[in-house]
Amino acid sequence: PDIPGTPNPDQLRNMVRGALADRFQLKFHEDKKEMSAYMLSVAEGGEKMEKAAPDSGSLPGLFFRGLGVLTVRNATMEDFCHLMQSAVLDRPVVDKTELQGRYNFLLKWTPDESQFGGMGVKVPPPSDAADAPPPLYTAITEQIGLKLSAGKGPVRVLVVDHVDLPSAN
After folding, report:
1. Which residues, in sequence order, are bridge partners of residue 69?
2. How many CA atoms lie within 13 A of 70 on its CB side?
3. What is the pLDDT of residue 167?
4. 82 vs 37: CA distance, rounded Å
5. In contact, 109 and 133? CB cutoff 8 Å
6. Which residues make Cβ contacts (< 8 Å) with residue 120, sequence separation at least 6?
7. 38 - beta bridge partners?
8. Mean pLDDT for all residues in the chain
9. What is the pLDDT of residues 101-148, one digit of tens each?
10. Which of 39, 57, 106, 133 is the most exposed place for a label (fewest CB within 10 A)?
11. Do 30 and 156 form a contact (C-beta atoms < 8 A)?
């Protein structure tokens, strides 16, 4: 549940932008740049995720219950892509699903050594147990009906137009 008086993510982002603009005279703009990325799309057969209740009012919840066990609640595909990019994968993740709304799902996979570098975690060797979860790309398709593929695509980037040394306190 939300805490009264606490800024939502958009309000917090705007507060930080305002503080950076005031203190450093930071000026920037968003652009798109063609670069190596992972493309997230809907797999053949369609998505297999539960739609979150509309207008639940709660913030998205994306959390790991261990390496390769991700619980997602009330999250958009953009939220999911951002988490995969920042915590799991080694390059940007672009949402090509065209799915609207918010979803709930559990994703279980066996990580490999190329994953979780952004969190500074050393991934243990894969288990050879018969009941071990599949690799990430297989798990995404089988469990949530999406497809993750490497390629090149338009990635949102921030371009710094101007920045000064910080103003005095």
Report:
1. 108
2. 23
3. 65
4. 12
5. yes
6. none
7. 93, 150
8. 90
9. 999 999 999 999 999 987 778 888 877 888 999 999 999 999 999 999
10. 57
11. yes
> 166 by DSSP, 3-state: which?
coil
Q: How far apart (Å, rounded) are the C-alpha atoms in residues 168 and 155?
A: 36
Cβ atoms of 99 and 72 within 8 Å: the answer is: no
State the Cα–Cα distance between residues 73 and 160, nearest whole angstrom: 33
Task: Locate 56 and state its tokens.
Answer: 């639940």
User: How many whole angstroms separate alpha carbon 149 and alpha carbon 166?
Assistant: 42
Helix (H, G, I), strand (E, B) or coil at 131: coil
**Residue type, position 109, single letter:** W
d(CA 78, CA 101): 10
Q: Determine the residue type at 94.
A: V
Strands (E), 76-140: 93-95, 103-108
